[in-house]
Amino acid sequence: MARDWNWRSATVPTQAQAPGQAGPQPLSDNPGLAKVQQVMARVLMLQEDVDEFVGKKTEKSYRYLEELLTKELLVLDSVETQGLENVRQALIELERLLFTGKAIISHADEVWPRLYIGDQHSAENKADLCRHRITHILNAAHSKRGGQPEIYEGMTITYMGIEAHDSCGFDMSVNFHSAAAFIHGALSRGGKVLVHCHVGVSRSATLVLAYLMLKQNLTLVEAICAVKENRGVGPNRGFLRQLIKLDGKLFGTHP
Fold first, then answer.
1. Which residue has the higher pLDDT, 202 or 95?
2. Within this chain, do residues 194 and 137 fall inside the same structural domain, yes or no?
3. How would DSSP label each residue in 30-78?
4. Which of 130, 168, 197, 225 is catalytic?
5. Does residue 168 carry a catalytic annotation?
6. Highest mean pLDDT among 4-18, 190-204, 235-249
7. Same-domain status, 137 and 235
8. Residue 155 has what pLDDT?
9. What keywords were assigned to this record (predicted)?
């Protein structure tokens, strides 16, 4: 079980201090950096609990710790850098720590029953598509250079393409419902779906997370935990904000 602590008064843990040395690092006067410090303190304590956990990763207590870690990602998103480099670097480091799912060692991974997230290579390897009996492909990086339905001629594959850019300013949310409907319809008929983009980390993962929220009634935290067990994912910060907004609409968990 994770230890309790005061969310408002946490300070950044430091290495053991020698007699006469200063105590724990105080919170910064800058609101953005102070908030990052608070999140870092909570994450470090949670990470220690995870590292010391004895048992199987499938146990509820372990999944609870992992969910708490993921929740800090949502707190992190509200931090404004105000142009400060130290805040920006702290955010980058914390995001790297929080997106600690399974390492990507294959072109595609099954992240939900019969639902895969993959890269461009996985979508173009016809032998693998046949071997895994993929029936539907959702391309989140559709373009003249990034795959067209014509390459699946002669195969029993239904294709949907979304022209999305992996940039924080791109509005991916306009595709949430149509993508979720495409995935849900395929799975409901017993099909297998590959959702892919160029690398299989941001755009494709964002659409799969939205599907899990819209059609499987998972919160954003639950969806991230479910997916990252099988594939490391990292929606860009703009996509993450859009998912947080969807989470708020569906579950009222965010203002």
1. 202
2. yes
3. SHHHHHHHHHHHHHHHHHHHHHT--S-TTSHHHHHHHHHHHHHHHHHHT
4. 197
5. no
6. 190-204
7. yes
8. 95
9. Cytoplasm, Golgi apparatus, Hydrolase, Nucleus, Protein phosphatase
